[in-house]
Amino acid sequence: MVKISSFIIGLIAASLIVTSMVWLMGDLSQNYNGNYTEEDFAVYNQIQTINVEATKIKNQSEAGYEQDGALDVIGSYFRQGYQALKVTSGSVKVFENMTDQAITKDANIGGERAGLIKTALITIVLILIFIGVFISAIVKKDL
């Protein structure tokens, strides 16, 4: 009997959370302009380009083509490493563009505050990534 009552309480709590989120989304759509053009989504569409490049690298590394010697193995290692580095640098640029889009255009924060908020957001994300890597190195487990 205890398990059924805790399940019902959990179901009610989850329903309240979902209902409050729906109300929040309704209020956001009423109070803020929801009309976006294709130009507004151009920054977000850059993720597709990065995904295509990453898939191409994955397919090349899984192809399993025959390599003649040690130099072929070393050369393919550096070629794929260089391609992965290009994808990584593109990912950082997309993150910067998305942050800029969210701060300056979507949130309509103008003036000097936009740059400060963008810098703060990027700093927070970098600190969280560093803390995650540091904790996983100490604990020796994947997070």
Annotate the secondary structure layout.
Layout: H1 2-31, H2 46-62, H3 70-106, H4 112-139
Helix pairs in contact: 2-3, 3-4
Q: What is the tally of beta strands?
A: 0
Backbone shape: extended
**Could you tell me how far the N terminus lies from the C terminus, measured between alpha carbons in angstroms?**
36 Å
Largest sheet: none
- In sequence order, what are the helices and strands, one letter per element? HHHH
List the domain count as a whole number: 2
Estimated radius of gyration = 23 Å
What are the low-pLDDT stretches, counting only 5+ consecutive residues below 50?
A: none
Instruction: Kindly estimate the percentage of residues that lie in beta strands according to DSSP.
Output: under 5%
Count helical runs: 4
The averaged pLDDT comes out at 76
**Helix/strand-derived class?**
mainly alpha
Question: How much helix, percentage-wise, in residues?
Answer: over 70%
Protein described:
- It is a single chain.
- The chain contains 4 helices and no strands.
- It has 2 domains: 1-32; 37-139.
- It is mainly alpha-helical.
- 1% of the residues are buried.
- The mean pLDDT is 76.
- The chain has helices at residues 2-31, 46-62, 70-106, 112-139.
Task: Summarize this structure as a short list of keywords or feature phrases.
143 residues; mainly alpha; 2 domains
Concise summary:
This protein has helices spanning 2-31, 46-62, 70-106, 112-139.
